[in-house]
Amino acid sequence: MSKRCNDVHNIKHVPNGGLWAWLQVLSSFFLFMNTWGIINTFGTYQTYYETGLLASSTPSAISWIGSLQGTLLMLVGSLTGPIYDAGYVRTLVAVGTFLVVFGTMMLSLCTEYYQVILSQAVCIGIGTGCLFIPGVAVLSTYFSTRLATAVGIAAAGSSIGGVIYPVAFYRLQPAIGFPWAVRVLGFISLGTLGISNAVIRVRVLPAGRRKMFDLSAWKEIPYIFFVFGTFIGFLGLYTPFFYIQSYALSLGTSPDLAFYLLAIINAASTFGRVLPNLVADRIGPFNVIIPCTFMTGILCLCLIAAKSFGSVAAIAALYGFFSGTFVSLPATIYVHITKNRGLIGTRMGMGFAVTSIGLLVGTPISGAILDDSGYASTWAYGGVMTVAAGALICVCRVSKGGWGWRSVA
């Protein structure tokens, strides 16, 4: 039974290693694989739906499936904090596992747009939301000085999922059909989440229930700029994830080669979620996420000039690496900008709720721009939004620690 503690982030009492601590990293790795990893896979579904199952729908309409799924991940995740604090961590993971696997199996039976919305967007989205907070919060009770490293290793699971799931779907779908290809993915989720259910273990819980809202956060400049920076960032961040495959096809690339672009992004993102986080433990998370966010936006803009598979693939690899920090580091930054440790969960949940709106509307906006103006305008939109996010996070960092490049605690 997990004990309760007035300050779960007291560095003197945090182990920062040991068997159970690293088992939680393993558990969180598979939770990330089946939350953000599933979100990162949607580009493959987007391409398949546009030419197959949902060919009568526009790219913008199809992208609502993936964006709603991602929004529910963050929104439901932000609402499950009190359930986590009450000690029902295993229940959250079990319910999330059921919904993800059940939604995947129901997706295999879908033939209409509304059915895909209900199964893939709503059911799987809510399931991933139940898994999201345990995957992040458990680690903060086992690690303090090595938190960014632990979160980075766990977050690499989302990149691994973003490689395994699309490759499996792409190879299996022509051979055994859409229904069974999707079912195989469901069985992979069941097996990997089974490990998380078996080993997840909360070390300590807050002494009391946390508040759902902390209005005083909106009086703090660093918090305001970071929340709206991540909101703006998610408006543009997933544009290449959703549309880079169809862009390559429009350039005349063979389907076999175009497919691997999403796998390249996710594979590179594995290193982008681990290596920068190792550096973040030494120089501070702000000093890592800011330049990486600017580079992510610039690389998206570079897609405008990319007219061959080689150039698109090179940009995809770099984009995957630099964009990885935008998913793996925000949780660590919320810890750094929250003075009262008892409010970390509350403020993180509030921030994710706002960010989820950006994730909801970002890729449909990209799809609408694509329908109206083509790929160049789509990449311009994604790049400008991400660069703007870097600027806002930079303001957050300066307001928190000044212009010097020392680590901001």
TrEMBL record:
Transmembrane segments: 20-39, 59-76, 88-107, 113-140, 147-168, 180-200, 221-245, 257-276, 288-306, 312-337, 349-370, 376-396
Keywords of the record: Membrane, Transmembrane, Transmembrane helix
GO-annotated cellular components: membrane
Signal peptide: none
Major facilitator superfamily (MFS) profile domain ranges (all copies): 222-409
InterPro entries: MFS (IPR011701), MFS_dom (IPR020846), MFS_trans_sf (IPR036259), Proton-linked_MCT (IPR050327)
Record's bilayer topology term: Multi-pass membrane protein
Entry keyword annotation includes Membrane: yes
Cell compartments where the protein resides: Membrane
UniProt-listed Pfam families: MFS_1 (PF07690)
GO molecular function annotations of the record: transmembrane transporter activity
Domain of life per record: Eukaryota
Entry similarity comment: Belongs to the major facilitator superfamily. Monocarboxylate porter (TC 2.A.1.13) family.
UniProt-recorded name of the protein: Major facilitator superfamily protein
Organism: Sphaerulina musiva (strain SO2202)
